[in-house]
Design a protein that fits this description.
2 copies of one chain form a homodimer. By secondary structure, chain A is α/β, with parallel strands linked by helices. Chain A is built from 11 helices and 13 strands. The longest helix of chain A is centred in the last third of the chain and has 15 residues. The complex binds NADP nicotinamide-adenine-dinucleotide phosphate (2 copies). Chains A, B: One of its GO terms (molecular function) is oxidoreductase activity.
């Protein structure tokens, strides 16, 4: 027990990765995807928020009683539990102006979007460029839009949506323009952008969107995806003609390869400050009870493919916390 | 006739792209690959070195009689000709210590390798990292190794080769280590590198080498390819688990999309100085006469797949110029 802390879990959220791991989608993949932390089962749940119960000898920044939040790790058990062991370098203090369940909706999607935009695609603050985010109202898309608009201050943040609710939600979440997923080249051409579309962030169906992303991407532009794909349709497209960069973002890379683990704690600390200042809004929209049935319902909600923002689960009465965003 | 110059061609070289365009490999590709500059035929030949005959009104830096070299462009006719029209922004003065035929071997491979390492993968000078170059003795590989070692000053430059001649040549060209193409993961593990293998440059058979490149690449590493591929084998590999960046490099992107065209001229001017100072060696190894038969022979040489360094073609007696490198 060195740099670890035990949390009493107050709230968690369900992410598509939980559903995929439960459904054994990656069973024939390398170790990463099938690691079982020291037992013959794995407790699911990445995102968590809770209260520190105990800390290891090396932990200086946190003590018993602190209210914290974290994104979890592929090498430890998850947050769908009463108690959870976490790496103390990867946690941060909970924003004071959010409930536990709102807080638990943020970490995984925020870190993923932040790493994608800032570390993988290396978008610069104030760059005169546009970003296109595929699936603007999803968990990741709705924080990515806020990072692009309010942290990186890009002048143009285009997201894709297909319903009135998701269009409205995505605009509240920072989109300056929305287009329909199915009409991407045409609707983007119509926008007649004054800045080049240099960055494209795929958070849905990589194989479907890679060819259109290539079409609308500026020469030397970058496409980042967070969604595994069997097909990778690039041959015969302009991907090479434009010298395009394609980059994978996976939240688990740092904890799995044990590099730069403390950056997750730092990102969440920065996020705490942004939320407390009102720069970033929480994308929590719905609360389930943190019970076996609540988990099943939340998994079904994510599996439906129509979830907006994030669904949280709380140990307390949802009615007391579940202040939906909209 | 604005920023253009007409050159009397003294020497050129044959690159694999000339062979591919001649063989109509990309006939069903987007415009880029099948552009025919204003006629119903295309004169082949990217690389050229020659003497300026005339310049357009806007040209300030060059005048008739200047000895220059250039990489050509997909939107103009090529260098397999007596006279050639080139964009004056993309040319530079010929190094004084090389013959025309030696000079004509440099531009395309140099610009490609430079863009790949410096612009696409953004390797930093003096970085404590290793690079792996697939096909170390090829035209591009043998200048890429020099850029990596002598310009970017990386401590470890590993190239792949499969014959004694190519191994020796690649070491003369800057490789600190060579491994066999066919034993990449095992031989690289054996090197027990003290720095992370962060950069991999594929200059042969992208589909074959992508999976092994992924295996040996450090987390968050970058793989750059210059070779079109139908298959893109990434699913089920660690490419996403390691959050790897894949980036295409194509020399033609700038002239085709008309962005940053002057950078080619600047790179060749920098190269002239490096060659004159003896930092960079020319990778020319063999000379053919610049005649219809000489061109056919040089195409056959490139098609054989066993060419070492670069083959040049000269209007003068090869014996007078063709000082092979080794
Ligand atoms: N690599 C990583 O580290 C990482 C991290 C987090 C998430 N992920 C992955 O990223 C993906 C997105 O996760 P998420 O939580 O943001 O998603 P999500 O919240 O489940 O996304 C739901 C939204 O998807 C949209 N959608 C449905 N079908 C679509 C289609 N064909 N094209 C585009 N959008 C469509 C819907 O919006 P409309 O109603 O407007 O169509 C819906 O509101 C998942 O595959 C997840 O596993 C990866
Ligand atoms: N995207 C761009 O802008 C751009 C620019 C330049 C070139 N290119 C492309 O880059 C590729 C390389 O061009 P180049 O001129 O450097 O090549 P090259 O000079 O024709 O390469 C010849 C060398 O390839 C090696 N080789 C043969 N089979 C191999 C294999 N299976 N695996 C690895 N190496 C093998 C041989 O070395 P051993 O005998 O040691 O095996 C041989 O000496 C071509 O496909 C070309 O079209 C693209």
């Amino acid at each position: 027990m060195k740099a670890v802390a035990v949390e009493s879990v107050k709230a968690c959220s369900v992410n598509p990765i939980d559903v995929k791991v439960r459904a054994k989608v990656y069973d024939d993949f390398p170790d990463y995807y099938n690691y079982v932390p020291g037992d013959d089962y794995q407790i699911l749940g990445y995102d968590g928020a809770g209260v520190v119960e105990a800390v290891g000898d090396d932990v200086k920044d946190f003590k018993s009683g602190d209210e914290v939040y974290y994104a979890g790790s592929p090498i430890r058990h998850g947050s769908n539990a009463e108690l959870q062991l976490v790496d103390s370098l990867s946690i941060a203090r909970k924003p004071t102006n959010l409930s536990f369940v709102q807080t638990a909706c943020l970490p995984l999607t925020w870190i993923t979007a932040y790493e994608a935009l800032v570390e993988r695609m290396q978008v610069k603050v104030g760059e005169q460029a546009a970003v296109l985010i595929i699936n603007g109202a999803g968990g990741v898309g709705s924080v990515a839009s806020q990072i692009a608009r309010h942290v990186l201050k890009l002048p143009v943040v285009i997201t894709t949506t297909s319903r009135q609710e998701t269009t409205d939600f995505s605009k509240q979440m920072g989109a300056t323009h929305t287009v329909n997923h199915r009409e991407i080249p045409a609707q983007i051409v119509k926008l007649d952008l004054a800045v080049p579309l240099k960055y494209i962030f795929l958070t849905h169906s990589t194989a479907n969107y890679l060819p259109v992303a290539t079409k609308v991407c500026a020469p030397f532009g970058k496409i980042c995806s967070i969604v595994q794909t069997k097909d990778f349709p690039q041959y015969g497209t302009e991907m090479m003609a434009k010298s395009i960069t394609f980059v994978w973002e996976l939240l688990g890379t740092k904890p799995w390869y044990k590099t730069d683990v403390e950056s997750h704690g730092k990102m969440l600390e920065e996020l705490r400050q942004l939320v407390e200042k009102g720069v970033v809004k929480c994308h929590h929209t719905q609360t389930f009870p943190l019970t076996a049935k609540g988990l099943r319902d939340a998994h079904e909600m994510v599996e439906s493919g129509g979830s907006i923002g994030k669904n949280g689960l709380s140990v307390d009465d949802p009615a007391a916390h579940g202040q939906a965003f909209a």
